[in-house]
Fold this sequence. Notes:
Strand content of chain A: 5-15%
Helix content of chain A: 55-70%
Number of helices of chain B: 14
Oligomer: heterodimer
CATH class of the domain at 65-122 and 189-307 in chain A: Mainly Alpha
Structural class of chain B: alpha/beta
Order of helices and strands of chain A: HHHHEEEEEHHHHH
Number of strands of chain B: 14
Strand content of chain B: 5-15%
Shape of chain A: flat
Largest interface: A-B, 55 and 61 residues
Strand order of the largest sheet of chain A: 1-2-5
Largest sheet of chain B: 5 strands, mixed
Shape of chain B: globular
Strand order of the largest sheet of chain B: 10-9-11-8-12
CATH superfamily of the domain at 65-122 and 189-307 in chain A: MetI-like
Radius of gyration of chain B: 22 Å
CATH class of the largest domain in chain B: Alpha Beta
Mean pLDDT of chain A: 88
Amino acid sequence: MKKNWLYQAALLAAAGLVLWFFVHNTAQNLEARKIASGFGFLWREAGFEIGETGAIAYGAANSYLRALGIGLWNTFRVAAIGVVLATLLGTLIGLARLSPNWLLKQLAAAYVEVIRNVPLLVQLFFWYAVITENLPDPGNALQPLAGVFLSNRGIAFPTPWSTPVLNGFNFTGGAALSPEFAALLVGLVTYTAAFIGEIVRAGVLSVGRGQVDAAYSMGLARRSALRFVVLPQALRLIVPPLTSQYLNLAKNSSLAVAIGYPDLVSIANTTMNQTGQAIEGVATIMAVFLTISLSISAFMNWYNRRVALKGTRP
Amino acid sequence: MQTVRSGWVVACALGMLGAGTAHAQSTLEAVQKKGFVQCGVNGGAVAGFSAPDSQGVWKGIDVDLCKAVAAAVFGDASKVRYTGLTAQQRFTALQSGEIDILSRNTTWTITRDTSLGLNFVGVNFYDGQGFMVPAKLRAPGGKPAAKGAKKADAKAPAQGGITSAKQLNGATVCVQPGTTTELNLSDYFRANGMTFKPVVIETLPEVLNAYFSGRCDVFTTDVSGLVSSRASRAPKPEEHIILPEVISKEPLGPAVRHGDDRWFDIVKWSLYATIEAEEMGLSSKNIDQQASSKDPSVQRFVGATGDIGKMLGLDNKWAFNIVKQVGNYGESFDTHLKPLGFTRGLNNLWTKGGLMYAPPIR
């Protein structure tokens, strides 16, 4: 037991030494090259505009801190909505693959194979091109519903407080979703749903045939059997890999830079370029994604304990 | 992705470098030892400045600067290796010693010249940020166009179209990150009491797709980039006009690292030699005959008399080799930029109304 403790201490010391070497060497190189360091820049005026501020007031005169805050909010927004929609779509896909309906089953299988075998970045470019190339300019916007305008500037829709009107180059008033947000959300949801579908399918298949038969013999319909007997048991297997998918979705949202959605990485990118403080910028990105990922993990672990069989190890 | 990756490059490069040992050898010695100049150019392929042709050979005026240095150092303009760089990677690549010269349409600013540890050797293209709009774009409310605006562009806007950047209030603007472009854009709109929505996309092909597909009303970058993109990437170049307003000074030039004056001198005078050659009427076509000219300034230039080459630590025929193998500044301009629709303008010789002026080579 004591020997084990010694090894652990040695390992920790070695890791600490490597870390110290990198930090020290970096600091020394920064110093030698007269490159500024520190987080003081956060309170300076940002000086650049952001396309989507998610209902938060922002102008070029605000600080870098506020700009990064908006980036964080944009990342959070797309990740949170993405997780919910991907779970819903993924569950439907997973159940469709188990459906007795042959056509539905094949379609779901084709969906999974196509989507999960094409790189996400390519899919994002695809969705972005579909939206910007096919929709008309704001002057000729489609109006699927009264007051809702669909154009290559996104979708503008009325809120209880105001309605969108074409004012100059763009729609003002009401609320709007940008093509970048839409492309990123659709891309992340469809991509992640393909993986979640497979996880759900595996989870459902893991529930013994006897359980299903027992449910039917008690007079439960297929839908009720799924809801009350199969899914609660399947969840035990579904939740841990599902957590990984949620983490992937949150991290993949950083691909937003490629299609112009102002997420945290995009804003931090601009900040780094203007201030030259790349180390602080990368540290911020890492800290934020670590926080988001650990929060998702913590929540899912709590949920996993809830659905796990009592008295067994998860 | 690009961002995360390049950020990592910065962090790793600075973490890994042995402190203080990177530049023990002088750059000239290191270059002579390895046998080629490692030159950082624009990886995004900006036609006319640095872009590989159909055979994969790098071409452009930024590339010609690299070749000029190789001609001066080795007497052979082909002894260059190129590193394609993004806007984010370029400074770190130079700081960390990965490249010897940064020749990547980079704006000379005081921040870069001081806190980033670079030394700009001069200017090989006087540029400024401008705006491109579709010719068919209409001004909101049909306001009359600003009178008296100087036309920077031969292609005329359609009837009732936008003729001035002052008419762009409320427009959506496509812009690339990684430069001073975003900041100039915000400053210009703020100063004129206008608003806009930026769409910030990392790579040039993607941001151009967004603009050409109509996602944005306006595309902004340096005028050189606008002319180059319009000529080489627009589905129909004649459908896009460049507005007369130039909202910033962007002197583009090559840069080297702080702390090696000899190398700084070599790159600086290689650039000046191309400009001086044009002024003296020396070109790749006539330099062989001119080498026997009686004119003492030409004699000094080609290295027949004096020891200017030795002062730089180079062969005395350094300038002769540059002009013979790469050509003078005007030849580079005519070969690479003129076909794309560039006019000399500010980049003409000072004797012809431009800003290109080399200190005397004597």
